[in-house]
Amino acid sequence: MYSLKNKIVLITGASSGIGAASAKEFAKRGAKLILIARRKSRLEKLAEELKSLCKTKFLLIELDVRNRKKVTAAIKNIPTEWKSISILLNNAGLASGLNKFQEADVDDWEKMIDTNIKGLLYVTREILPKMIEQNEGHIINIGSIAGHFNYPNGNVYSATKFAVNSLTQGLRMDLFGTPIRVSSVDPGMVETEFSLVRFHGDATRAKKTYEGTRPLSAKDIAETIIFCATRPPHVNIQDVIIMPTDQAALHLVRRD
């Protein structure tokens, strides 16, 4: 088993949901954390929770991964003692809107493409050369069941997650012959702020997404990420599709 003790783990989108849950699980196992998110106040709140949970070291970086120049600067300015990153969890991502293609808001498209694809590219491009240099590293991308199957009105969001799936495969090919591992964890329905963001803060509509069923929790996904990260170095969990028992397909959900 790969020990996480004193390993440096960088998590994007760390301030809530799967990112925050993953930070807690990594911290419990002795990892040192670089936590990146747009909302500094949320990061600080998470830091307080981590302090009460365990004795772990962490570095907080307020950053929007959509901004390439700021990503480059932020990674470049990480203190020397934090630069040997062993695990990169590309978690930052979102859905914005749920409309037919011809009725969609182009601003929603831009937000999803810039976060889900470009943000992942920018961060990975900055971290990967150092992983290769140190001859150790693991990139874990958070994809989605929507990256395997499309669904009505999911058009551009699904396209971004298909892109993550493709990029993950491409990374493995480009890193062939190195010890760098690349995994993708692709959840089905998970109850986080995902739907609240998708529906632009409409809490009533967001709540209906999960009514009458039992979705996965952020902790469920975090535990799966830990499983991938702690396999022996010769083992790479390439892809995990994880669904709630109440979900048989992307849009086939059992409800009471």
Topology:
Blueprint: E1 8-12, H1 17-28, E2 32-37, H2 40-53, E3 58-62, H3 68-76, E4 85-90, H4 106-134, E5 138-142, H5 155-174, E6 181-187, H6 194-198, H7 203-208, H8 218-229, E7 239-242, E8 247-249, E9 252-253
Parallel strand pairs: 1-2, 1-4, 2-3, 4-5, 5-6, 6-7
Antiparallel strand pairs: 8-9
Helix pairs in contact: 1-2, 1-8, 3-4, 4-5
In CATH, the homologous superfamily goes by the name: NAD(P)-binding Rossmann-like Domain
Largest sheet: number of strands, sense, barrel closure: 7 strands, parallel
Number of domains: 1
Q: Give, in order, the helices and strands.
A: EHEHEHEHEHEHHHEEE
Which strand-content bin applies to the residues? 15-25%
Structural class, please?
alpha/beta
CATH-defined topology: Rossmann fold
Helix content: 40-55%
CATH-scheme architecture: 3-Layer(aba) Sandwich
CA radius of gyration is 18 Å
Number of strands: 9
The side-by-side strand order for the widest beta sheet comes to 3-2-1-4-5-6-7
Distance between the termini: 41 Å
CATH structural class: Alpha Beta
Overall pLDDT confidence = 96
Low-confidence runs: none
Describe the structure.
38% of the residues are buried. The protein contains eight helices and nine strands. It has one domain (8-253): Rossmann fold (3-Layer(aba) Sandwich). The protein has helices at residues 17-28, 40-53, 68-76, 106-134, 155-174, 194-198, 203-208, 218-229, and strands at residues 8-12, 32-37, 58-62, 85-90, 138-142, 181-187, 239-242, 247-249, 252-253. The radius of gyration is 18 Å and the shape is globular. The strands form two sheets. Strands 3-2-1-4-5-6-7 form a seven-stranded parallel sheet, sandwiched between helices. The chain has a two-stranded antiparallel ribbon with strand order 8-9. Helix 2 (40-53) links the parallel strand 2 and strand 3. The model has no long low-confidence stretch (mean pLDDT 96). The protein is of the alpha/beta class. Helix 1 (17-28) packs across helix 8 (218-229), helix 3 runs parallel beside helix 4 and helix 4 packs parallel to helix 5 (155-174).
